[in-house]
């Protein structure tokens, strides 16, 4: 886990994006719009006959009706439909010549001539006129004509997609998303252009909603399991260490020299006591007392307060405190280095990788033998796809702390991902052997088993992966995330939907603030076609989001599910389900 409360993109915490983990299902499925576009795009190959280009041309032959160039479209010896087709054909010729106004005139004539019972032809004429309006960037007219075409033919892909593009131009993202969702389903997710538009609109909608909602949300303290897991990723962190007798004044000790109840005079020491008692909600206020009184532990109080601001997702509150600690040149160097790690992780969460890298590099300069710096910078490098540099940082961490099982496991996982994506089977096997060695040397490291389980799942060694997750659960029975991963494994391995959902439900029972569990449950419910339940799960995850970016991602998933409910209601369209 990086020092910020969540990684850069919504991840599971162990190397894979959450949407990718949620797709570890061993049957051909379509999740529908949202979260899955990147996956679908990677799976789709451009094959002859597949439509991946712009839909800009009108339908029908571009050859004009026989006769002179300026002749009237109507011919007295032709039926009304033939005359309409002739007008359309002439309009197509004008369209290809870039004479859009003349093309519109001919398409309008075709619409007027077409008998109302010839619905397919009539919808085509409206769609063709919309194509000409599109070239003139008359977006309202495009929407109007496409709507006429769709009313006649509700599954008219060209008209739906053209209307979606026009609605995007008119900044009507909600209706745009509904149209492009319908297109994606009708095309069985085989057209990259429509998937890209859907992905783009979902991200924009998610960002817009999160920007407003995140500012006004009520801060929420994570579960004790999450907080303890967070602090366990640091070994050189002064503020997370238990209370020391030396931190108390003589009058705060009893006659035998043992730790007594901390007096109200030291807000920081009181906060540390609350931390030991897992009474986390009172820590920020006690640290504030220490800071305002300018007590002897002001630097520590600032850092501890900033850390809990980060944990509740209040980066705006955390940054001034981190800045102050970093600029305290007379403060303990380990406090300053820890503040730099946390600010660097916060910057990465805010998608500012250059500033993040600067903070990690500065931390390494001021505290060269701080293993935490290299450990967390190694995770940063993995997120930036700089695997070789990440391995170098993990090696430095291991050199400083040879007993750091976590760093060794994450190094092995980085090497595995590099080998796996590079299709090097020999290097994959070397990494798998490395995991065997790590789990043998560090049998109490749950993260080692978890990362090994993910690699085994990649290699379709499902039975052994299940064994590794069981060992994780034996070591950390309160780790909800492990139950989610184990549940996903059951879906991929045995296609056992009930067992998978039971395990994810168990995760929520263990930690009702596990946003990863709600998100994964929502994704599975989308696959099952239970869109209302999926939306409910996504909304629960949204309320637990610890960063604006994570909230935006979750809103995208929720909007995608909602769009599918609207498409199902309007057009009777549903993607395949489990």
- How many beta-strand elements? 0
Mean pLDDT over the residues:
86
**Morphology call:** elongated
Structural class from helices and strands?
mainly alpha
> What's the helix-strand series?
HHHHHHHHHHHHHHHHHHHHHHHHHHH
Largest sheet: none
Corresponding CATH superfamily of one domain = Tetratricopeptide repeat domain
Show unreliable segments: 1-53, 62-71, 249-264
How big is the Rg? 30 Å
The CATH architecture designation of one domain is: Alpha Horseshoe
Helix proportion range: 55-70%
- Assembly state: single chain
Number of helices: 27
Strand percentage lies at under 5%
Would you write up a description of this structure?
The protein contains 27 helices and no strands. Among the domains are: 80-216, Tetratricopeptide repeat domain (Serine Threonine Protein Phosphatase 5, Tetratricopeptide repeat); 223-241 and 265-398, Alpha Horseshoe (Serine Threonine Protein Phosphatase 5, Tetratricopeptide repeat). It starts with 17 loop residues before the first helix and ends in a 7-residue tail after the last helix. Helix 2 (37-43) packs antiparallel against helix 9 and helix 14 packs antiparallel against helix 15. The protein has helices at residues 18-21, 37-43, 80-96, 100-113, 119-135, 139-152, 157-169, 173-186, 192-216, 224-232, 267-276, 283-292, 298-311, 315-326, 333-349, 353-366, 371-383, 387-400, 405-421, 425-441, 446-458, 462-475, 480-494, 497-510, 515-528, 531-543, 548-571. With 578 residues, the protein is mainly α. Helix content is 66%, strand content 0%. The longest helix is centred in the middle third of the chain and has 25 residues, at 192-216. The chain crosses the membrane at residues 21-39. It is found in: Mitochondrion outer membrane. It is a single-pass membrane protein. Belongs to the Tom70 family.
């Amino acid at each position: 886990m990086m020092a910020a409360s969540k990684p850069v993109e919504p991840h599971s915490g162990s190397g894979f994006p959450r949407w990718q983990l949620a797709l570890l299902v061993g049957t051909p499925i379509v999740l529908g719009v949202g979260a899955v576009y990147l996956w679908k795009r990677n799976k789709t190959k451009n094959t002859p006959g597949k439509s991946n280009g712009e839909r800009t041309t009108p339908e029908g032959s571009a050859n004009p009706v026989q006769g002179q160039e300026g002749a009237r479209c109507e011919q007295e010896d032709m039926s009304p439909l033939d005359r309409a087709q002739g007008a359309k054909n002439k309009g197509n010729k004008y369209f290809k010549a870039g004479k859009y106004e003349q093309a519109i005139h001919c398409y309008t004539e075709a619409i007027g001539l077409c008998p109302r019972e010839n619905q397919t032809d009539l919808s085509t004429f409206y769609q063709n006129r919309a194509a000409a309006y599109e070239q003139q960037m008359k977006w309202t007219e495009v929407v109007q004509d496409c709507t006429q075409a769709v009313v006649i033919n509700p599954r008219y892909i060209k008209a739906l997609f053209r209307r979606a593009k026009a609605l995007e131009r008119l900044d009507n993202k909600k209706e745009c998303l509904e149209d492009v969702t319908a297109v994606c389903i009708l095309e069985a997710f085989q057209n990259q252009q429509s998937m890209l538009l859907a992905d783009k609109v979902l991200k924009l909608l998610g960002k817009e909603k999160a920007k407003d909602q995140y500012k006004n949300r009520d801060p929420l303290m994570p579960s004790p399991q999450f907080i303890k897991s967070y602090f366990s990723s640091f070994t050189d962190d002064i503020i997370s260490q238990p209370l020391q007798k030396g931190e108390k004044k003589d009058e705060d000790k009893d006659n035998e020299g043992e730790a007594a109840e901390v007096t109200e005079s030291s807000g920081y020491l009181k906060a540390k006591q609350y931390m030991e008692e897992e009474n986390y909600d009172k820590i920020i206020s006690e640290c504030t007392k220490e800071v305002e009184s300018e007590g002897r532990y002001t630097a520590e109080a600032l850092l501890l307060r900033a850390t809990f601001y980060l944990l509740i997702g209040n980066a705006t509150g955390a940054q001034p405190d981190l800045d102050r600690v970093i600029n305290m040149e007379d403060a303990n160097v380990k406090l300053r280095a820890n503040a730099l790690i946390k600010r660097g992780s916060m910057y990465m969460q805010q998608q500012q990788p250059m500033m993040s890298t600067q903070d990690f590099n500065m931390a390494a300069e001021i505290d060269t033998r701080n293993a935490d710096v290299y450990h967390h910078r190694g995770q940063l490098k993995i997120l930036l796809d700089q695997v070789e540099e990440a391995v170098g940082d993990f090696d430095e961490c291991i050199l400083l702390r040879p007993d750091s099982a976590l760093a060794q496991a994450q190094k092995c996982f980085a090497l595995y991902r590099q080998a796996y994506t590079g299709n090097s089977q020999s290097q994959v096997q070397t990494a798998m052997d490395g995991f065997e060695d790590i789990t043998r040397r560090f049998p109490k490291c749950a993260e080692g088993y978890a990362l090994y389980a993910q690699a085994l799942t990649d290699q379709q060694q499902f039975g052994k992966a299940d064994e590794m997750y069981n060992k994780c659960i034996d070591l950390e029975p309160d780790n909800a995330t492990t139950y989610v991963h184990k549940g996903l494994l059951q879906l991929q391995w045995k296609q056992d939907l009930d067992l998978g959902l039971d395990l994810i439900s168990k995760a929520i029972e263990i930690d009702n603030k596990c946003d990863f569990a709600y998100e994964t449950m929502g994704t599975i419910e989308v696959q099952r076609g239970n869109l209302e339940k999926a939306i409910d799960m996504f909304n629960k995850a949204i309320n637990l989001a610890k960063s604006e970016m994570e909230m935006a991602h979750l809103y995208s998933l929720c909007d995608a599910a909602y769009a599918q409910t609207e498409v199902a209601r309007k057009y009777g369209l549903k993607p395949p389900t489990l």
